[in-house]
Amino acid sequence: MRPFRLGLTGSIGMGKSTTAGFFARAGLPVWDADAAVHRLYAPGGAAVAPLSQLVPDCIRDGAVSRETLKAAIAQDGGLLPRIEALVHPLVAADRAAFLEAAQSDIVVLDIPLLFEKGSEAEMNATLLVTAPPALQRKRVLSRLGMTAAQYELILSRQMPDRDKRARADHIIETLSLAAVQAAVTALIAYIREASDA
Known about the structure:
single chain; about 200 residues; alpha/beta; Rossmann fold; 2 domains; five-stranded parallel beta sheet; two-stranded antiparallel ribbon; 9 helices; about 55% helix
């Protein structure tokens, strides 16, 4: 039987990784889109050869340098869609392999740009993690090397939280670890009850 696919999303600093961790600790398989890209960009990864053709300077020690790639994208406005055209099918293949191998009634797909890319259509339900703007900003700016300008740029590329709230099936406020854990446990129980009904 095909597992129930829960799409997990949330803007930067909202607590997505922490929430995904609680699902994993509850025994659910979790696929992480960012981790998939890291695998594809690592030495021997499927994205290394095609990106070396497109942006030769971005290869360092057999892997894709994300910093060099970002710099190249900043210089060439038409580069990002070409990179996405190469990388997105590889990410989709990684996700398909995960779903094929998953041995669970529920799987969690952690996708930062779930709504931005229209991927919610592939999910049985969506979960948005969110937090007040001041807490979000504090979390992000506490990250090593993060500047206010970088933060604002990242936010500008993401759908506003209020729009995501309007589209999400489920919402978890990530104000405390205990509250998040309780909400995750309750949501898993809810999905299982609804599936059995």
